[in-house]
Amino acid sequence: MTERSTEEGRARRPALRPLAMLLPYLLRYKAQLAGAGVALVAAALATLTVPLAVRQMIDHGFNADNPGAINSYFLGLIGVVAVLATASSLRFYFVTWLGERVVADLRADVFRHLTGLGIDYFDRNRSGEIASRLTADTTQIKAVAGANVSIALRNLVMFAGAVAMMVVTSPHLSALVLLAIPLIVLPLVGFGRKVRSRSRWAQDRLAEASAYASEAIGAMRIVQSFTAEGSVSTRFAAVVEEAFAAARRSTAARAALTALGIFLVFSSMVAVLWWGAQDVLSGRMSAGTLGQFLIYAVIGAGALGELSQVWGDIANAAGAAERLSEILSEAPSVSAPTAPVALPPRASGRIGLSRVTFAYPEGGREAALREVDLTIEPGERVAVVGPSGAGKSTLFNLILRFYDPQSGVVTFDDVDIKRLDPTALRRAIAIVPQDTVIFAASAAENIAFGRSGASEAEIRAAAVAAQADGFLSALPQGYATELGERGVMLSGGQRQRIAIARAILKDAPVLLLDEATSALDAESEVAVQTALEGLMVGRTSIVIAHRLATILKADRILVMDGGTIVETGTHDELVRRSGLYARLAELQFGSEAA
Ligand SMILES: Nc1ncnc2c1ncn2[C@@H]1O[C@H](COP(=O)(O)OP(=O)(O)OP(=O)(O)O)[C@@H](O)[C@H]1O
After folding, report:
1. What's the pTM value of the predicted model, to 2 decimals?
2. Where is the ABC transporter domain (predicted)?
3. Ligand 1: which residue has its CA nearest to atom 26?
4. Ligand 1: distance of its center to the CA of 566 in Å?
């Protein structure tokens, strides 16, 4: 579908329906809702009382026979104003409170939902764009839920009240006004839709711009090393320009909406007033009554005018709510069965693949694994080697059940992993990736990532076993030092040892290790190897191997190519076979391997 037709498709839907998703969140806070409702009605009633007092003053207050009356009218007016002030401030407080509360809940819910989605969702969507939805879209809802809903509700109530009082004051003038209302409202609603679809368009462009920016910022070393600052900036500026153009279109629509609203409302009012003036001149109506009617009409028209202004904002929020609903209604592609099979507290760690064929959802028709048969016994140490793109990482992805294969079965402890709770399965597997992600948290928290609630002693013991205690203790605040963004930067070897400590602390029966390809200095290399040796003892381990030392120690080597296992055996057996492995070993390790 082209973007244009998507935009039009959305515009045809009822404008505010997406906001209904906020209702369950609002209903959680009934007391605050009730408080807001009472304050809203009280403020509206107080405002609507003012014209009554004005009429009394015009028609009777200036009467010289009763000079005390004017004092009591003014005192009464002060009382009304006091009620108005209190009720308005309470309304503002409650409605803003609700807005902040709902958005906080919504953010937490959307994030929780995101963390449960399948990895394929993150293949399809850019992380920067998702983050922008989590922040920009919820902020937009907050702005509306806070201020604008308060304004809209107040004006709705005021409008209804003003119309009712106009009818009471002068039925025949009101009849004229009521005739004018559809003429005003219908064009505004139609226009509101256009504003909404344009606003969604603008938000999407903004999400794209922030996605691009966060990618570029995250990869600034690469950007600068390729001296691509200029082209990256130009590209970002172009995306920003597009976002600006989209926002300008949306704002132009809103500006036109405002102009249309004001003109329609006030021109109708002038026409009605002219009629009323004729009535006063001919003595059919008192000047006070026309004054009272006039003030109600001004209140009513003002309310409608303000409504037309916030309508655009509310339509914006509906666009944001729609995008968040899309995330919330995204079903995880991999989920737990209704009655998952329980793994024993200490799984043995046997892994099996039987005729497994798998192609990535986004990877076209080319299968990444084809008819793979494999059994790995508990405690076995298996090295996987093969050229780039052979399917080594895919094997890990399927064992972790990040994706389900199109055919064949993956088993863990002889149970089809589709019958296990994915969380339970992943709890039994520790992974040491090639590039370790260090979170912006303390060193201790980074290690305890795999097992929240681990004690300080356990964290330290894991770090000692991972050969990481030395450099961690030497940091300015030891284990409490902030790492990652804005914290201490670690070397490649140090990051790997943090990853190993994480895996040691997790203490899972299965270890998936993607050996780093980057060269470490000799000292780091020894430390990492020692740490890994300790980690692999007593666990089923599968290692995507890039080092001869690792391969030599493996019980079995799997050689992969083009999504299949083409050879298996020990290093010596495979070298003697003079097949793909022999060639790879020759290339990678040279004479060392012979
Ligand atoms: N998330 C993904 N979406 C689509 N295709 C993918 C994805 N990940 C990998 N592929 C494709 O699947 C095939 C196997 O990739 P895989 O990452 O398993 O190879 P590998 O043997 O681990 O390679 P390397 O040693 O370079 O990491 C490749 O053709 C790759 O392009």
Report:
1. 0.72
2. 351-587
3. 388
4. 17
